[in-house]
């Protein structure tokens, strides 16, 4: 019984360390400012701007997730500034915009986005994506991000970074095969 309890404690605390700010980035690549904002009506579907796995629970359920309120005609614009001081240009990035409660460490929202925007060597670029889903399924969304004294913490994690020389960097906690899918999508983007 004691061993079972210790194993349960270990796996619970090990899970807390995942998806926290301070996760790694590729050498020479840094994350700058990131934010979300409400934007007006947008297209019903725009594959170049829609989130890949846009579920507040992070399970890929998207609009079918009953805990998520989707406002008709309302969009949220998510953005992250990526600075590239590496020797290679960035071709594609898989990134997560995560909202957590700093007191309970509960994940309040997870949005996964793919950006096929080039970030040149010694350059920076704001990667953006639109979604119909608010940043969090629990926190009331107003016209601006949560106030400073809030227990809500937002951060961005780069999951996979594909460079133009076809090399791939991936976050150690990324599920196997995730970055391979990004590489395949980037190849199909080049054919079109």
Explain this structure to me?
- Helices cover 15% and strands 36% of the residues.
- The protein is of the alpha+beta class.
**Order of strands in the sheet with the most strands?**
2-5-4-7-8
Which consecutive residue ranges, at least 5 long each, have pLDDT under 50? Answer: 1-22, 43-52, 55-69, 139-144
Largest sheet: 5 strands, antiparallel
**Percentage of residues in DSSP E strands:** 35-45%
User: Cα-atom Rg, whole angstroms?
Assistant: 17 Å
In total, the number of strands is 8
The SS-based structural class is: alpha+beta
- Tally of DSSP helical segments: 2
Question: Which term fits the overall shape?
Answer: globular
Q: In percent, how helical is the residue content?
A: 10-25%
The structural domain count equals: 1
Order of helices and strands: HEEEEEEEEH
Q: Would you spell out the secondary-structure blueprint of this structure?
A:
Blueprint: H1 2-16, E1 29-39, E2 53-55, E3 75-84, E4 90-101, E5 107-115, E6 123-131, E7 152-163, E8 168-170, H2 178-191
Antiparallel strand pairs: 1-3, 2-5, 3-6, 4-5, 4-7, 7-8
């Amino acid at each position: 019984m004691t061993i079972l309890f210790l194993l349960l404690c270990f796996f619970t605390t090990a899970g807390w360390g995942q998806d926290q700010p301070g996760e790694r980035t590729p050498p020479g690549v840094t994350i700058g400012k990131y934010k979300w904002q409400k934007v007006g009506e947008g297209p019903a579907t725009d594959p170049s701007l829609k989130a890949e796995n846009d579920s507040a629970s992070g399970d890929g359920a998207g609009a079918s997730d009953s805990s998520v309120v989707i406002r008709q005609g309302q969009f949220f614009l998510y953005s992250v500034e990526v600075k590239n001081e590496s020797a290679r240009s960035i071709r594609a990035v898989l990134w997560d915009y995560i909202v957590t409660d700093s007191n309970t460490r509960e994940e309040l929202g997870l949005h996964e986005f793919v950006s096929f925007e080039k970030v040149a060597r010694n350059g920076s670029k704001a990667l953006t994506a639109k979604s119909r889903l608010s940043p969090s399924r629990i926190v009331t969304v107003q016209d601006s991000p949560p106030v400073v004294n809030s227990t809500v913490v937002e951060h961005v994690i780069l999951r996979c970074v594909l460079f133009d020389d076809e090399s791939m960097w991936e976050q150690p906690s990324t599920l196997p095969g995730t970055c391979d899918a990004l590489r395949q999508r980037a190849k199909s983007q080049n054919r079109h």
